[in-house]
Amino acid sequence: MMQPPTIDDIRAAAKRIEGSVVRTPMLKSATLSEVTGAEVWLKFENLQFTSAYKERGALNKLLQLSEEERARGVIAASAGNHSQAVAYHATRLGIPATIVMPESTPTVKVTKTEGYGATVVLHGDMFDDAYAKARELSLERGLVFVHPFDDGQIIAGAGTVALEMLDQAPDLDMLVVPIGGGGLMSGVSIAARAIKPDIELIGVEALLYPSMKCALQGCQLPLGGDTLAEGIAVKQPGELTSAILKDHVDDVVLVEERDIERAVAMLAGLEKTVVEGAGAAGLAAMLSDPERYKGKKVGTLLCGGNIDTHLLANVLVRDLVRQGRIARLRVAAQDQPGALAKITAQFHDAGVNIIEIRHSRIFTALPAKDTVIEVECEARDAAAIDKVEQMLQAAGFNVERASLD
Fold it and tell me: Which residue numbers delimit the ACT domain (predicted)?
């Protein structure tokens, strides 16, 4: 196993990549501070050119290749931000790049990676298949393999973000950092411990993928499933990263899907910034356990902003449902003239807007003469929808509200 990078390696990486990656803003969020009870500082790594912090490690690695290695070219396996970072900076430096992605990778990510100048090879169903193929091609073609996290030069590059965070907000008590393979938190923890030894370091994983927590704490938890935070959905953390985090990190916490969704929606609604599920995991941790962070100055990384726009739209609408501002009401009524008018009148009187109406006459347990009318509606606040529900019941209708959970 290679040696972990030192603070000097991270400082050297910062000089090396200076001017070629964005020194992103680090801003205090007054609104999120109010919501969580902590003083919340956000590091906007979603403002990098490829919308993620991964550029730091990829560029640091590429700049240290020999002329002979550059001429041979590089290869990486990733369905996400690492692939775009390697593709973009390799092309910029005139290094041929091949990226192996699972066949299930969304077309938009494939097109984007090709747009940065890389050759994309689609292989297998899972990241693990793509990773194995990339290793195979690396040996076959003599390409330099660029690991997404378990590499000292990648980790040193990622650590540069902590140098900036502690320069921009020196009096932070705690850093809350998403963990997938552990490359980001490894670099951050080495840098942060060197600059501010007593700072508290909390890693965050999706509840469905607790691989690093189990590696560090020896627990056995189920692993797998569909998470919004696919950027940190890693089944096998790195050897080097696990060793570093064992020495440096105070705790690894797990966050549920609904908290990740809420964090993505809050960042869009309150901060007007688009963040992918993995990038919102730090805020999700604060929202799920506010007591732990209350009264502390907490810095977290919005480490990526590459979320599919359709998925983002779903998350935002689902959040409005959870807030009670959008609802689907199932209203049982007699199938006769005037029933619908009587129902819609209640919505009008309560000041609730109807988005969509559907009749269900066949797939219902009601008598044949009755119907279920499904009404999707939206209002300024949850109280208005509660009011229309009460008004419908007072008018003699049986009402059920559809639930997300």
Answer: 328-405
| Mean pLDDT of the residues in the chain | 92
Query: 162-206, pLDDT tens digit by residue?
Result: 999 999 999 999 999 999 999 999 999 999 999 999 999 999 999
HEC-encoded secondary structure of the chain: CCCCCCHHHHHHHHHHHECCECCCCEEECHHHHHHHCCEEEEECHHHCCCCECHHHHHHHHHHCCCHHHHHHCEEEECCCHHHHHHHHHHHHCCCCEEEEECCCCCHHHHHHHHHCCCEEEECCCCHHHHHHHHHHHHHHHCCEECCCCCCHHHHHHHHHHHHHHHHHCCCCCEEEEECCCCHHHHHHHHHHHHHCCCCEEEEEEECCCCHHHHHHHCCCCCCCCCCCCHHHCCCCCCHHHHHHHHHHCCEEEEECHHHHHHHHHHHHHHCCCCCCCHHHHHHHHHHHCHHHHCCCEEEEECCECCCCHHHHHHHHHHHHHHCCCEEEEEEEEECCCCHHHHHHHHHHHHCCEEEEEEEECCCCCCCCCEEEEEEEEECCCHHHHHHHHHHHHHCCCEEEECCCC
Return the CATH number of the domain spanning residue range 7-53+158-318: 3.40.50.1100
What CATH code would you report for 55-145? 3.40.50.1100
Residue 48, pLDDT above cutoff 90 = yes
CATH superfamily entry for domain 323-401: ACT domain (3.30.70.260)
Domain with CATH 3.30.70.260 in the chain: 323-401
